[in-house]
Amino acid sequence: MNKTCKLIILFVIACVANGAKAQELRSEVFSLLNLDYPGLEKVKALREQGKEKEAATALLDYYRARSNVKNPDLDLKKITISKQEQQWADDAMEHTFFVHKGYQPSYNYGKDINWEYWPVKDNELRWQLHRHKWFTPMGKAYRVSGDEKYAAEWAAQFMDWIKKNPLAPMDKEHYELISAGEVKGKAENVRFAWRPLEVSNRLQDQTGQFVLFLPSPSFTPEFLTEFLVNYHKHALHILANYSDQGNHLLFEAQRMIYAGAFFPEFKEAAAWRKSGIDILNREVGVQVYKDGGQFELDPHYHLAAINIFCKALRMADVNGFRNEFPQSYLDTIESMIVFYMNICYPDFTNPCFSDAKLGTKKEEQKNYRDWAKLFPKNEQIRYFATDGKKGQLPAYLSKGFLTSGFFTLRNSWGMDGTVMVVKAGPKAFWHCQPDNGTFELWFNGKNLFPDSGAYVYAGEGEVMQLRNWFRQTAVHNTLTLDNKTLETTESVTKLWQPEGNIQTLVTENPGYKDLKHRRSIFFVDNTYYVIVDEAVGEARGEINLHYQLAKGKVNIDPKTMTLTSAYEGDSNVKLQCFGEKGTTLKKEEGWCSTAYRQRVKRTAVAFNTQKDKADAVRYITIIYPTKDAAKAPKLEAKFKNKKFDEKALEVEVTVGGKKQTLNYKL
Question: Alpha-carbon distance 270 to 274, whole Å?
């Protein structure tokens, strides 16, 4: 490149940096900082002399030389950028912003950035725009390439965001509104740009971006003051608007710890850090049941909570305040990890109950490796962290978490295993779907009965309709009355017997007024499952027993009430339902979503029986996993007790000519 071209490029970059939307020296920054903090002596002296520009320059010099504060998420000696991150960084130069994985290709937000652009009325698309996910890739691109254009553009976009997204007064509860119609004017944008979760996301990520761009000429003393004043405003906003409960509160608290630990020069830094630590130390006992389950009863948010708690510990470790977390905090995290490993499948994937998305083995193993550093004595965590090369598996196979209502009935931890995970717990919160009694079933490398998932979260019109479709009880592997969504989700475990040739689980949920659902599951000979469903009460209507299978060909025989899959490979299933006289089989709409805004069609059916009297409606379903469903054995089943019994059950099943009696007494 000749000298003239270089000068032109530098001139363009300088213009962009100057237009970094009019950076000003924000003198109020000095009143926000503790100028008696070690290392700020020169800054204090210059400020007292009225030399604020020189004081800002000294402050920038201080940060560029600072070495006593660590960011555990960033190693400046090992900065790498993936191909995807490079693409996000390059796209961002043209204002095409990576906002959400569910909306690809990314949208362009205009030459003059329109931070209120809302191409699809999905709240997540608008909220997550304000997380600035492309800023860190731009920082990595700058560090790897040394190209100043990334830093200049970042500074310009940063200032543009500040200018166009002022914080205006708004009621706290408006941040979580599903519909935008109730909030008008400036507050309509504030509810997206300044929702506490998004603010906390910026608090955390800006610590890394600060370090990545700090050496840049575009990171001027004036920009530093703008950055710090804006950052301070973020922290104060969180303090005044913490979410009331759930994972949002955990995220916000953990990120306030980041703010206080990474910028100890702020006068309130110690209070910020203490605020976050106090909340996490409290909430680890509030949000996590004694059995290790997180109270939202969603595998995705259970995992998120583990990593929030761990992230706080790592920040404490590198900056010397681990002693502010008691041993009980660590013990609870460890119990959460044990919970998670037990409800996942041999390929490390998780059930997609509620709003959960499907993880990958690569992602999950990274989690286990991180956890193994915090819990080096736990041999089970070590086993999964090393993919079985070190450590050891749990001594048991099946496992129940009775408070959270998650149960795993398995015959192996290996890829060829048979694993059923059942969800039947207490009432939970927004992310938890009304699906008590539902299950997923893995066999020989395949999930045969995947949960319907969530598809989208919340928004306007069609977006909310789509969310509501995936949330309805009728699209889960459980029982409904007139296909209506459950009115009550408060399952009680009546029996859990996880050992021997016949393992037994009995749960009961008072799903509707005058109708309860008792589901009894038997895992027989480590081979097949028998599910007994009993709808009990005075209610009248149609009782629907729903099953959702995996994508692929499934043969349906309404006469024998039998489903046989014909999937490619050696993972198939035969399901046969034995219902009351007059039971019919109906094919239903079936979808499965394991990632945001991604779904596939699949076979779904319901076995329907009219309940026009007080007597219970009862079903027996045999689910027989097999490599080849066409060669599956003949199945038969009948009730031995002629009517529903509150304290006992006895059924007889015959599989391939072998007769078994399955029973229990409560």
Answer: 6
